[in-house]
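Suppose you are handed a protein chain with no further information: no name, no annotation, nothing but its sequence. What can you learn? This example shows the usual starting point.
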Amino acid sequence: MALSDKEIGMRVRNIRKESGLTQDRFARKFHMTQQTLSRYENGRISIPNGTLESIARGMNVSVGYFLGVDSTEFTDDELRLINIYRRADDRMKEYILEMARMTEEKLKGRDLPE
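A reasonable first move is to predict its three-dimensional structure. Written in structure tokens, the prediction is:
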């Protein structure tokens, strides 16, 4: 289940506080304003994927931590696909699933791990 913007923001806040950074210092480190960071942390606005990835890299945590996914089982690309799917509307989800089905058909007969 995908985490809400508020839950993701709380995880960003936890990482920031565990690192002993103020909102101002953390915001400057990741090229945003303190007000924007506050909105992210409070779940008032969604954190863009690129920003979330930058924070994950900069704070030495997996993107999966912020998304509520155990990243030990997934690569960053797999997590990106999951996040895209979860944020998509129903029409886009149908398109993504159709692309996956077509890819699966092309891969049939190859020795691939399941």
